[in-house]
């Protein structure tokens, strides 16, 4: 690469399924309207309680639920992938996904049978638990031979996957990369968050003084990334690993601030260029206070509108970052704003930030997305027109 040359990375196409819908028009309509119908399944339980969960409304047909989610998303961009394969060598098309559960939910059933009978069922496969399985299966589905791997750093996984896709193209390993994230329902994770007293038994209420935890969800969001000019640009990415605590964020927001600062530095833009912040916004006491402090510390006198989209989709764990980037990509491509849905009672322990409402109609050109994970793994991406 010539000195001083800056390569452009674009997310040209998106296949996307989440609790808001299984096709792009439905997702846009429901996101605009703050529709939470997808957060109210009838079969997700903790003890005797039915709890909100961002379920994707597709039938489970295969042994691994995430496989069905990937199929539903990839079908939406199948023609564009075929064009990629005619344009580039299959060995030059990579796949990088973020995930955290693979098929742990399904593996639990086999393990339960082993515990009750003493024998593991014959159709059990270790691939249910292998973190690389989603990317390897996707490579088989689309028929490419380039690099294929999965990043698993909990909730920061899929923003890291998009950043890594950029590296594969920048370093001339790939000409195009399918990148994003996928995670499916996992009762192991559901019960784990409940044990941490971080799971809300109501629809999550981020930035509210009444917030009491997260809802989980499932999602597949798959982008095509290439170098070029046509599409939504990946302007900058930033990551930090502060290792403050295994499950709690640094209350000062230092790791989150560092992640956002690095993304702005990578993008070579001022904080005043950011129009919208798609927050991590989990609805937990610790995250929301920390993130509001970090946002306030980064943006100073500039007040971009901010929202958490998790009251509409649930927290999709390894796919959470890709889910928020996908919704941001849709906002930029279709010129609308997703409002912040909560009870309207802003928390006293959160720093003042400007939350998006359905009355906001300003043009959005640049969006910053955050994803923060256990262990202090923080990731930020800036995308724009």
Write up what this structure looks like.
This protein has a single domain, classed as Peroxisomal Thiolase, Chain A, domain 1 (3-Layer(aba) Sandwich), CATH 3.40.47.10. With 385 residues, it is of the alpha/beta class. The chain is globular and about 60 Å long. The mean pLDDT is 95. The protein contains eleven helices and 15 strands. It starts with 8 loop residues before the first strand and ends with a strand.
Please describe the structure with a list of short key phrases separated by commas or semicolons:
alpha/beta; 15 strands; Peroxisomal Thiolase, Chain A, domain 1; 11-stranded mixed β-sheet; 33% helix; globular
Task: Please describe the topology of this protein.
Blueprint: E1 9-17, H1 24-32, E2 45-46, E3 49-50, E4 53-54, H2 65-76, H3 78-87, E5 93-98, H4 104-117, H5 133-142, E6 148-151, H6 157-170, E7 176-183, H7 187-195, E8 216-217, E9 219-227, E10 232-241, H8 254-267, E11 276-278, H9 285-299, E12 305-307, H10 310-313, H11 320-334, E13 354-355, E14 366-373, E15 377-384
Parallel strand pairs: 4-8, 5-6, 5-7, 11-12, 11-14, 12-13
Antiparallel strand pairs: 1-9, 1-10, 2-3, 7-9, 10-15, 14-15
CATH homology superfamily name: Thiolase/Chalcone synthase
Q: C-alpha Rg, in Å?
A: 20 Å
Major sheet size, sense and barrel closure: 11 strands, mixed
Globally, the shape reads globular
Quick summary:
With 385 residues, the chain is of the alpha/beta class. Helices cover 33% and strands 20% of the residues. It has one domain: Thiolase/Chalcone synthase (Peroxisomal Thiolase, Chain A, domain 1).
